[in-house]
Amino acid sequence: MTVAESTTDLEALLAAADEGLAFDGLRLEREDDGYALETPETKHAGLDDAALRDALGPLEAYVSNWRYWQREIEGEGTARRAFLRWCERAPLADAERADRRTLDDATLAVPERYEALADGIDRGWGQLRITARFVDVEKPNGERVYDLWHADDAGSDLGDLDVYDDPREARELATEDEDGRYRPLKTAPTLRSGWAFTELSGRELVDTVEFLYPATVANWHRELRGELDVDHWLETAERQTGIYDVIDELPREAVDWMAEACCVDSQCLRRREWQYEEGDDLDVDGGDGPFPCREPCSVVIAAARKWTILESEEERTYELELTTSELNQLAELIDAAAEGRTDEIREADVNDGANRYRARYLRAKRFDEEGTLDATEREP
Amino acid sequence: MQALVIAAHGSHLNPDASDPTYAHADTVCETGAFDEVREAFWKEEPHFREVIRTLEADEVFVVPLFISEGYFTEQVIPRELRLEDWDPERWESDGTDASQATLEATDVGKTVHYCGPVGTHDAMTDVIVQRAESVTEDPDVGDGFGLAVVGHGTERNENSAKAIEYHTERIRERGRFDEVKALFMDEEPEVDDVTDFFETDDIVVVPLFIADGYHTQEDIPEDVGLTEDYRLGWDVPAEVDGHRIWYAGAVGTEGLMADVILERAADAGADLGDAVERVRAATAVGTDGETRSEPGPGAGAGD
Ligand code: SF4
């Protein structure tokens, strides 16, 4: 810390002391007989100006910590502040601990936190890794910066990654997956790797995270405060108009299948909190993501429309000729497509029912001239 | 503190649909007029549903990046933003003169100034003209040129044609182009017959759409006869029936659109300082060497 910085910090602190100050273990108050100063490790009273300065000497960490949070980050009660405090394992305000599902209790008091920030404190957020650290490790002045990258790159050299510093570039990174396919659902676990944002300010970090996983910080914060406003399936479906007006007719059990198809961890990192309706939970587990999903998203709504139309069809019975292995092969094909596994099946792996040659063979054998599966409907 | 939300359609299928929204948001952001600037979408994230809660500001200006008043601006956006006291009557509009309504977003208790869509604002007329300047790379384009403003036409929205006709009339009154016509994809007069409606050799065709996509990159170029197959692309200008067609693509991709967004917010009471002037200067034809030519007097500076 430079002399100038440390003096301004101190002057600002003294000015704040007039009102009484209590923050992150530091308490400073001007009383009739002088200043009262307290931390978990020290306790003084009746200090005059000079004695207070002396007493604060060894408490530099508390002073710069106060400045960073109260003067620089500010935003008392905001999601941004809570998220940044969570990033460095700082304790959150009581109001932000109403729902403890995503909170671990391993918060750090100022001295331990300062030690950890010198090395960097890591946090996971979906597929993201966030490191909070001091700008200046040698002489920490309380100034934090944040690095952000993909969990898969945790062991990579920065030199091997594309390094960015403008949060807006995250929009581009979130657009396509590793194979160049468009990602309409930003919380799908298909975020590509190979990039890093370094030395972001607190605000820039939150902006970047929000470009990658929109609204996740805001809803996480609401949940912590016990204020997450969940809209269950039925409410959301009934609200729809236009071409989506029909989706409230999707049968109850189909909503379970839909959640299993779309909302499980392998497909979406949001933790689904919505149910069929209040008091009527879906069978499918909501997942383990740190950030909650408070209502069916637009991708699910669009798919629900398709399923509503498909589910309105009556079931019929068909007769078709298949060997037992061919029936099993149909099951394997569906499973491979559902798991997105078809690209991984090796060309010559004819033991896999979803192998392309096996699929082409089945088509050649069992499809008719029109190119459809040769089956006849059985008379009822 | 004041925030701006640009509310656009977006797409589940086409990654380019949100590009103009991002570009205009960046332009507005760089003016520093708002403490926060956010994009929000119907088909992408952040969804309309969640966007207001991501803001710290208590005053939020929402500008729909849509062409016309109708289903999205009157029903979907206000409903998804939870503007419970919304009623289309509050715009007192007959289809082209929505201004703004001040409401509360009930989930967050913030004040929302819900603005009319960009497409019906007067400043949009200038964007259409600037689009013609950009595609011809001539800031003085007009003499000897016809201008076709192309809209979708009726679908579920009777106002969709009104916006097109409104700007067509305004441009016609200025007398800058020899002829100005409103044409449509789904109703008469149809854009397929574009050359029948113009005497001029040169015709600039500007589709009044927000983003380039299926309609502007596949349908219209094929309908107009610019190309047999959109995948083969087309020339600008392209020869069709003895006319030169300067096809501009979606008007919403024009840089000056950011100005319309600001004007909407200003009309609703946003404090913008000199942001409007700065955006006009930054997005004028000729300031970006790639696709634009010499700056002309008053290019893009509005009336
Ligand atoms: S509805 Fe399902 S798929 Fe969509 S964001 Fe929520 S959890 Fe993910």
Summarize the structure in words:
The complex is a heterodimer of chains A (380) and B (303). With 380 residues, chain A is an alpha+beta fold. Chain A is 37% helix and 14% strand. In chain A, strands 5-6-7-9-8 form a five-stranded mixed β-sheet. Chain A has a four-stranded antiparallel β-sheet with strand order 1-2-3-4, with helices on one face. In chain A, strands 10-11 form a two-stranded parallel ribbon. In chain A, a hairpin with a 2-residue loop joins strand 5 and strand 6. In chain A, helix 6 packs parallel to helix 7 (202-212) and helix 10 crosses helix 11 (298-311). Chain A is elongated, with a radius of gyration of 28 Å. The N and C termini of chain A lie far apart (86 Å). With 303 residues, chain B is an alpha/beta fold. Chain B is 29% helix and 19% strand. Chain B contains eight helices and ten strands. Chain B has helices at residues 19-31, 48-51, 71-80, 123-136, 160-174, 214-224, 257-267, 275-283, and strands at 2-8, 36-41, 59-64, 100-105, 110-115, 145-151, 179-184, 202-207, 238-240, 243-247. In chain B, the strands form two sheets. A five-stranded mixed β-sheet of chain B has the order 2-1-3-5-4, sandwiched between helices. A five-stranded mixed β-sheet of chain B has the order 7-6-8-10-9, sandwiched between helices. The longest helix of chain B has 15 residues, at 160-174. The radius of gyration of chain B is 19 Å and the shape is globular. The two termini of chain B are 31 Å apart. The model of chain B is unreliable at 289-303 (pLDDT under 50). The interface between A and B is medium-sized, with 30 and 26 residues. The site of iron/sulfur cluster has 12 residues of chain A, from helix 11.
DSSP helix fraction of chain B: 25-40%
Tell me, rounded to a whole number, the average pLDDT of chain A. 94
| Rg from alpha-carbon coordinates of chain B | 19 Å
Strand numbers in spatial order across the main sheet of chain B: 2-1-3-5-4
Supply the helix-strand structural class of chain A.
alpha+beta
What class do helices, strands and sheet pairing of chain B give? alpha/beta
Taking the alpha carbons of the first and last residues of chain B, their distance comes to 31 Å
Query: How many strand units of chain B?
Result: 10
Strand composition percent of chain A: 5-15%
Report the uncertain regions of chain A: none
Widest β-sheet, arrangement of strands of chain A: 5-6-7-9-8
Oligomer: heterodimer
**Largest pleated sheet of chain B:** 5 strands, mixed
